[in-house]
Predict the structure.
Amino acid sequence: MEALRVENLIKDFGGLRAVNSISFSVREEKRIVIIGPNGAGKTTLFNLISGNLFPSSGKIHLYSKESTRLPPYERAKLGLARTYQVTNLFFSLSVLDNVLLAMLGQSDSKFTMIKKCSALKGFLEESEELLALWNLKEKQHHLVRQLSHGEQRRLEVILGIASKSKILLLDEPTSGLGKDETNLLINSIREHLKDIVVLMIEHDMQVAFSIAERIIVLHHGQIIADGSPDEVRMSPGVREAYLGASLP
């Protein structure tokens, strides 16, 4: 069954075509990385898939349901979650409360107004297990603004898991991270997200080729390569897009 399918997706901003007739589907692959030079249309594509933008034309399907014009919260109900280039968390709440809110967002318990999140025992136990798995349990009672940038990035991924997502869009998750934090995040994604489709935009080529099962390359809003890391690495079109000239 297809997790995601986009058909002839186009997005125009006035006279600028940011996404130009993009089509692809995701079936069995669990880690797909989207790469491309600056301005290639990567984040615009994510915004279309997540519902932050609507396409000028084309269609989007999530698990066979036509989702082209659904708002983000309806896509979340279908199992889609995403992170952003700029960290998007509740900075004045604790780490644990952030995870609890993500869990409650997909549960009927969100309509229980007069009760503390911490009183929901099942959610509390599951949240603590997730934080332990991602090496953040010891900081569960810290305010999010007290975390390092790398810890905040890990917390964003945890929130996607906590919301019961089946497809997780990660927009440059390693941006601004040092080598050690990058390795910790990538190893955690590889180890703990085996049952979730991860579609990731990545600017670091070493990271992209080390984690991807499949790589999609965008240039000027179009797909110029789509295949395994080895296939993409050997593509003359990819080399030309990044280096600006054909190679012998």
Summary: The radius of gyration is 19 Å.
